[in-house]
Amino acid sequence: MDRFVFLTFDGLSRGAVYAAFALALVLIWRATRIVNFAQGAMAVATAYAGYSVSAATGSYWLGFGVAVLAGIVLGTVTERVVMRFVDHSSPLNEVVVALGLVLVIQGVLGMIYGNEFRPAAAPFSRDAFTVGGVALLSRFDLFVFAAVGAVVAALALLFTRTDTGLRMRASAFAPDVSRLLGVNVGGMLTLGWALAAAVGSLAGMLVLPTELGLHPNAMDIVFVSSFTAAVVGGLDSAVGSVVGGLVVGLLLSYVSGYLGATVAPIAVLVLLVVVLLGRPGGLFGRSAARAV
Amino acid sequence: MTTGGGKSGESGESGMTVLRYLMWTVFAAALIVVLTYALPPFRTYQLATVGAYLCVTAGLTVLTGLNGQLSLGHGALMATGAYTVALVQDGLAGRGQWTLLVSVLAAIGTTTVVGGVVGLAAARLRGPYLAGLTLAVAVVVPAVASTWDETFNSDQGLSVVLDPPPGTVPFERWQAWLAWAGALVTMVALTVLVRGRFGREMRAVRDDETAARLAGVSVGRTQVLAFVVSAACAGLGGALFAVLAQSVSPGAFPLSLSLFLLMAIVIGGLGSLAGALWGAVLLVALPAVAHSVTEGIDAQRLEGNLPLALFGLTLIVVMLAAPGGIASLRPFRRPFARLRRKT
Fold it and tell me: What sections of the protein cross the membrane (chain B) (predicted)?
């Protein structure tokens, strides 16, 4: 029972990160109908930048800020320089270009930093508090919950309470009409990419210290888990991506805890297959004539 | 090696066609044999690698280019074939050359089954969903190898027991012959398949599923079959890789391998079997060129990473500079795509 409680909290903590990462995927999907397959690599790139700054200055938080800022820059550049010019008539095109970005980013990171694992320091202790002999949460887990909660709340406020959020939703929903009404649709798309990349970078900074460490390929498996989370929730649903993230986090935690860590990726694959075949719109998706 | 694109209306002269394929095959085989005698051992080994890659790229270009299904999981299918060869060779060790044929056939069989399972799921999925699912398949390889480590020996992998080549043939030459025998069989089989009824059905499904269904084509069946055929080719390619490297390990089939394969067929020209050949050549040549460039300067980190970056950059530039590439495959999908955007 103790173990179950511990695994549950651990899973929720992991799930919060997957939720944030899935949220970033959903942001871009809703705005542009593109699944950003390069998001994992982009997050790793910004994490490298952040940890380089931390190592140079000795301040973790400066590096953390640099990573998120680098996410904004990288997202903007990706949209302005590459994604904007992709022909959207076939959904294959965007996927292939994003995968090209993955190769470029991983190659460049490998050239600059080398392909060995580097330790990624956590800003808080990862030793869990114990309540009545049961290990529950570490300070770092609390930090993860706080950071992801803040991001989700900020995004919700942005999209539901501000003019900019309304413009972004309008650009995604009806680009032509929005343009007629004077909305800078291109700018809104860029803003969407910048925001999503920043959220992705934040998620990267939260997940890399846990077990992965810094490596050009470190986020591959996180990307797959988060994609699964987004699909579980329905790619169109922001709420769904958060719930999906928590579901995937719990599943991974239980599977790793009871069956062994190597089984976790297999469990993700099985979950993805089951959801795609059973309920392709996701738990929160609206049904469509041809959703998938 | 003929292109697979478009020209499917020449069915009246099937006798001539068979003769032409036969002549091409004999010509290609003769060329390979001459090359294996002319080239030094290392170049012969590279030639063999091109042959092994060709099996995979040819199968993948048929799936993605002609049937419109994107697979990022072909690296995992290659791993399936390679591990099958390793296991069967180990089981039949030392009984003669014929065991290699058995294990390669077993590899194709296993991969066909795995491809059928993935294909059944894939036939119901489109675009990014299919890409995500096959990506998950590609990522799962090391996990499978570690979970059942009594069989697959986790990260260390297995060694492939091979009998020495017959007579006094050097090992690299023997490997090149084996690899290209597989590659030529694949190319001929795919060319025949693509030029025939099945090829037309695949293209019909790719261009417009509704129209294909109205014309009596079973969309799901065609998609699953295309995936199975492509998987069988990947399995053969993987088996040949096991024979070439004489070992298999998860590290030999990383996610980047699947991305490289995709890049090779995009640059070679999607849906074209001749393009698959150029892609396979590129997959061997580009790392070799990058290696010789970085050899002079002391830059260990460039090794392996420079080709990665170059591959990615080429992929992006090709997609941006020639947007007609993939897009021209689905001219009739446009209105539907636009409708979907609005829902």
Answer: 21-39, 45-63, 100-122, 129-148, 174-194, 224-245, 251-270, 277-294, 306-332
pLDDT in tens, B109-120: 999 999 999 998
| Interface pTM, i.e. ipTM | 0.87
C-alpha distances out from residue A117 to A205, A208, A210, Å:
15, 11, 13
B148 touches chain A (CB under 8 A): no
* Residue pLDDT, tens place only, B67-111: 989 999 999 999 999 999 999 988 887 777 788 899 999 999 999
Q: Letter for the amino acid at A210?
A: T
- One-letter amino acid for residue A282 of the chain: G
pLDDT digits (tens, 9 = 90+) for B199-250: 999 999 988 889 999 999 999 999 999 999 999 999 999 999 999 999 999 9
B210 CB near a chain A CB, below 8 Å? no
Chain A touched by B322 (CB under 8 Å): no
CB B81 within 8 A of CB B110: yes
State the pTM of this model.
Answer: 0.86
Structure tokens at A271: 């979950």
What is the chain A residue with the closest CA to B207? Answer: A90
| A154 in B contact zone (CB under 8 Å) | no
**β strands within chain A, DSSP E:** 128-131, 134-138
Instruction: Name the residue among B342, B277, B134, B285 with its Cα closest to residue A33.
Output: B342
Rounded-to-10 torsion of CA A85, A87, A92, A98 = 0
The amino acid that residue B333 corresponds to is R
Residue B97 to chain A, least CA–CA distance (Å): 36
Per-residue tokens: A115: 């392909």
Torsion A228-A224-B84-B114 (CA) sign: positive
The domain spans of chain B are 11-255
In sign, the C-alpha dihedral spanning B168, B171, B173, B177 is: positive
Which positions ≥6 away from A285 have C-beta within 8 Å? Answer: A233, A234, A235, A236, A237, A240, A279, A291
A25: closest CA among A217, A202, A193?
A193
* H or E element in which residue B248 lies: strand B247-248
Residues 6+ apart with CB under 8 A from B218: none
Q: Verify whether the Cβ–Cβ distance B315 to A97 is below 8 Å.
A: yes
